[in-house]
Amino acid sequence: MAIFEYPEVFLILPCIIFLCFLRIRSWNKSLLPIDWPLVGMLPGILRNAHRIHDFATDVLCESGGTFEFKGPWFGDMDMVATCDPANIHHILSKNFANYPKGPEFRKIFDILGDGIFNADSELWEFHRRTTLSIMSNAKFHTFLERVVWHKVENGFIPVLDYFVERGIEVDLQDIFQRFTFDSICKLILNYDPGSLSIDLPYIPCEKAFNDAVEALLHRHSLPESIWKPQKWLGIGKEKKLIKAWEAFDQFVYPCISQHKVIEEQDDNFDFITAFRKACKETNVASGDSIEFLRDTFLNLMLAGRDTTSTSLTWLFWLISTNSSAETKIIDEIETKLHAKKDKKWRLFDIEESRKLVYLHGAICESLRLFPPVAIEHKAPVQADIIPSGHCIHQNKKVLLSFYSMGRMEKIWGKDCSEFKPERWISDESGGIKHEPSFKFPAFNAGPRTCLGKDMSFIQMKMVAATIIYNYHIQVVENHPVSPSDSIIIQMKHGLNVRLLKRRNI
């Protein structure tokens, strides 16, 4: 045979096999996904789907903060993932106009319609200007404090006391989600669904948020050619999203159609009335349509319910594993607020909460490690070169991992994985240190910075101070804690705890 005429082949072949063996071993040691023929790096994504956020962090750490993902040839999934602050600043601020939400984002988040999260250009400007104007109103702040106070006094405390007296465990994440759902519904729709009550009633719309955010991450992880047919057939994660959509519509539409205008008085505030008035003043043609109102309010409900409840859940888990932080928060409350110990419980108002610097630092530290919105994706209108040197072609996806940013040593130091509220407190002034939003994007960055940031901090500090001062929380032994595989970083298994009343109550 001809092959025997070339004996050097028998020397080269073992070398090739040996080199392939070394390559496979290096793949096994590396955390980076393998770029396979035809399917690209999709198998690596699917293999790590159960820990997608930590997988992204591993990959970004090994690749220096930015990584080019190669999708299957049939899926149009090629993208650049990054957690580099310089890239984040460039995309979300410096070159903001080149990175709109765009049609791709709207396809994935179609459930949100024409709300602020999907909006671009003039529609986004309208949403931002109108919402900011309403939330800046002094009456809104008075109404917010009244709503939170009422819900804590008549919902939170009775429910927590019920579980304390019986010595049974409770899912604190579920309690926080019910609290924020009731609160945001009252703020936006002027309707309290009463989900936070002793019997913990099942309310389809409240639970639909969890199914929706899980399905939306599913759309990020798969080509449209796969999730779109699932949507048409009503199967898999898309089936959950369809049911969630129905639950939202069945809840929000009646609230809008049955809404009665509240006469404006000194102590009255009504969001629906204020928003409709703003639409008329700015001549927004679709502003008074029930569909547009549904989209607007659903976006605000998603922001108000999920981000705040998620932040509170992670905060209390971190505090429960750090007794010194818990002690410092209690000491701060007693010292700065002169908290008396002669009442059954104590609720702290807005002005009191603003004095709690260490608690504010603890919340910031929790948000650094577990930002409620884990990822965001963008696509440039025109080709761009980002600061890391990567070329982003027109309409190519860029995935921004906010979750990974908090775990980067080059951003936060070698102690980046530790919970240290002191990280946020200035040694000189004793106040809160300011960190640029492109380093700490828990509330997004640039022109799209979250409008409800201040409202969220108010709620979290009022609720956290009240619970920490009046109760000691113990996480149930061996309870698994890990982030969920969804757009919003909830706890995958909830947060089962036992509560104890403090001796000073």
Q: Brief description of this entry?
A:
The chain is α+β, with helices and mostly antiparallel strands and 505 residues long.
**Helical content, roughly?**
40-55%
- Number of strand elements: 9
**Structural class of the secondary elements?**
alpha+beta
The secondary-structure element order is HHHEEHHHHEHHHHHHHHHEEEEHHHEE
Number of helices: 19
Low-confidence stretches: 1-27
Mean pLDDT: 87
Q: Outline, from the CA principal axes?
A: globular
CATH fold field value: Cytochrome p450
Please tell me the CATH architecture by its name.
Orthogonal Bundle
- Number of spatially distinct domains: 1
The radius of gyration computed from the alpha-carbon positions, rounded to a whole number of angstroms, is 25 Å
User: What portion of residues belong to β-strands?
Assistant: 5-15%
The end-to-end distance, rounded to whole angstroms, is 94 Å
Strand order of the largest sheet: 1-2-7-4
CATH homologous superfamily caption: Cytochrome P450
